[in-house]
Amino acid sequence: MTNPQNRDESGPSSLKQQARDSLRALIDYGQIRVQLAILETREASRLLADQAVFIAVGAGFLFTGYMLSIAALVNLIADRFGTKWEYVGLAIAAFHVVAGCILIIVARTVRNKPIFEATLQELEKDEKWLAQNLPSKKKRER
Q: What is the pTM of this model?
């Protein structure tokens, strides 16, 4: 950088220098913002990765606990009512199959509902407006 005492404050060279200094400051500011965004992105990705690990391990524990509770439930029902555990297991499995099918049907009906309906309508309106108000390529070429 130049020394402010040696700089001629009047004239085109000082204006050019001020423009360069302003541009350099703007570029430095942009670089700092990009570095900050990179740093925050890395931190966020680490946090999300940690969350994903905890969710996966938690889901594994929940699944194991669920399976063990189903086995215990089969045994309790079989002992309580004096039936074979195989029949109780089949009945619980049938319940799970029916419940799973119902949930899949519900999920399919939810999936078929339009998502972002208001936004899509606004985009369609914008598209129509642009088509009406902007000159087409053919008109510009004439």
A: 0.52
